[in-house]
């Protein structure tokens, strides 16, 4: 390697040092330490043990919590897809200016704390909230609908905060679809429905895939929304991990729960990837 | 002893395993405009970057104004450079862009204003001083880039394909402008381009490069009329190429037989060919004259050194100042250019005509793989 | 089918888009009027008009204190993360060291792990090294979650940076440090600035990491609201939230002006 090239590598390393210190000291090392705590006794120094993980899988309560977390995340993905896909389609057909405007509108609430957005939903969905108030006044119902502090409330809250990822992922893949394809399909005499199923949908699969995995992962690890909109009855993995850590001070179990959450999310995403990546899909999109 | 403004002695540079610039020797005199010409990947830009100080040569000696440039960084070489992409600083006004080099040289404010104004007038754009590069057209941007390069009165001006991002008409306009400026200021200039017309228009001398090797250094006329190699002949201008074998050779005259059986006479120029040797023979389209097949005698006949072949006209194109014919000669398409395109009986497509050219105009080089 | 229109069209797709946009914005739209209620009941539409819930914020020192605390934390985290992230992005883009793909992945890795898990692991590790519950510990973890955004934004900014500008400056006589200061930095400043604003908002809004690292003396505003909300729901939350919304809106406006929000998220809606 020439002197100049060596100097460049040194310069690069020097500039990277501060970030590396942060990433290693506050992320990589703590993650490894947490792994130790979850698999060794006496706070990560004693004998090797799988007790925490055994405890989890032998207790039906924890299995129920994990299943609930997965179930709510799947509902959220479905809601985001059903509501988000048409928005992405609309954006793909709009002018760049309109696209920018819609992007701005759905992104900007994202920059406001999730605590506050959830609070807004509480005002809308609670027993004397906006929706129940309106329906009661119109005489459509005679006692308030239960929209909050149950699984429905959690799904509404999660959909609100995660739909933006689905919309942008799908929209990005639709932008890449050449407009001439639609014209070609139109000339060949495809109906609108046919055009959707034979052109739009297949070509947006990478976007759907990206959006789905992202929304699912984020829903699995969401803490604030289940805590604020699910109440005490809807316990999900992040909430019980928090309780074990901060209320029961059972750090070994807390650490194990964190890894189980991470592992189950990655595992399910991998499973889903396998499921979607059929041969044809791979051939078309692997490049 | 003459002191050259730029001197390269055995300069070479390798990237990975390949020699990008191989044993480059050149002396540029004061006020000269020298062009590096060649296809992409020929090493012209690499050489320019070594002169500019963006790259270190692996070996050889590079001197500017007699001083060795080994280990001297770009910012200490006192050069002016114009880039293909203009490279004006987008966050500075035109005035600030042009003044930047003076500011670095700690020129007094008054002096700076005077010189910026002067150089903007030189490129005929004094009215855009307060604008930002974004607000200028491509041609204006390049003029400002030229002004920025000239304002420090550099010892050497480097032009890295400065015209290739402009459309055809602007390119011609700016080409004239560059020539005027170069002559007016008399700054020693090194110009890099892949456009031979630009090279011939602007330069005192052209360096033709191919695969890192200097193929020929010479005035534009010499390069065109006496190419030193098969590559130069093919790269500069348009040529008809025949593969042939030398059948006889005496007194600088040779007889060749092409692969499809045509007999050619050729004078020996740059390359001395031997009897029985496999060669490539070139003839430029404008050196071929046409006559109707039945005309027994060509106007120039009687010189005795002419080549005469018969062929069938396949395609006639009118290109403004000249016309071009593709003539099929024994299966080989031969291009003929003429300023008097005769669309008359006997010269239409599909008709048989006679092609004539002087043995003097045939260039012969050692046979080269396509 | 591909007819383009600059105006909103009332098609089924347009209708759903309108509904979704409304859904995403409505929680915020509803909070502000609610905060002006004259009663003690949290309801929409609100009854009466008063500023009493804004005045009452000052009766709760925990909100005022945590606001200033959050502000201090977010500003520090943003400045440090911007400095670190910008240097890292420059290293990656300008010098392209061997393995830059892996380094890039490492720098962005905190984004790929749920922040809840980052919070738990930080608590465990910080307890071990004596940083749990300290301001330093909280600050470090906020820098960690902000750095990836800065790296990504500055890299995006650099991707359109033309390095011949640096060559042009060098030829004119500028030393590399002078070149960086006069040319490179000003040209990529919008990207750096956006990275800083984004880092600020990331820290200022964070709950899931702070959750594990705060102490009674170091509580952030979102945490204070979160804790308060779990005990009681009064219009006080609405008035505090309204102030936070206003603050965030100012930043969103600045971001949109300087950089464009969609570019911020790597969406290429302007490319067609």
From TrEMBL, chain A:
Family label: Belongs to the binding-protein-dependent transport system permease family. CysTW subfamily.
Entry-linked SUPFAM superfamilies: MetI-like
TM helices/strands, residue ranges: 12-36, 72-92, 104-124, 162-182, 203-229, 249-272
Residue ranges of domain ABC transmembrane type-1 in the record: 66-272
Gene3D superfamilies named in the record: MetI-like
Species of provenance: Paenibacillus profundus
Keywords: Cell membrane, Membrane, Transmembrane, Transmembrane helix, Transport
Pfam families found in the cross-reference section: BPD_transp_1
Membrane topology: Multi-pass membrane protein
Subcellular localization: Cell membrane
InterPro entries: MetI-like, MetI-like_sf
Identification of the protein by name: ABC transporter permease
Automatic annotation (TrEMBL), chain B:
Keyword Repeat: no
MF terms (GO), sorted A to Z: ATP binding
Entries under SUPFAM superfamilies matching the protein: MOP-like, P-loop containing nucleoside triphosphate hydrolases
Domain ABC transporter intervals: 6-236
Superkingdom assignment: Bacteria
Pfam families, A to Z: ABC_tran, TOBE_2
Assigned keywords, A-Z: ATP-binding, Nucleotide-binding, Transport
PANTHER family for the chain: SPERMIDINE/PUTRESCINE IMPORT ATP-BINDING PROTEIN POTA, SPERMIDINE_PUTRESCINE IMPORT ATP-BINDING PROTEIN POTA
Name listed for the protein in its UniProt record: ABC transporter ATP-binding protein
Originating species: Paenibacillus profundus
Lineage of the organism: Bacteria, Bacillati, Bacillota, Bacilli, Bacillales
UniProtKB/TrEMBL annotation, chain C:
Domain ABC transmembrane type-1: residue ranges: 67-255
This protein's UniProt keywords: Cell inner membrane, Cell membrane, Membrane, Transmembrane, Transmembrane helix, Transport
Subcellular location, record wording: Cell inner membrane; Cell membrane
TM spans (from-to): 12-36, 67-92, 104-126, 132-151, 191-214, 234-255
Family matches, as PROSITE patterns: ABC_TM1 (PS50928)
Membrane topology summary: Multi-pass membrane protein
Alphabetized Gene3D superfamilies for the sequence: MetI-like
UniProt keyword annotation of Signal present: no
Record-linked SUPFAM superfamilies: MetI-like
Entry's family note: Belongs to the binding-protein-dependent transport system permease family.
UniProt protein name: ABC transporter permease
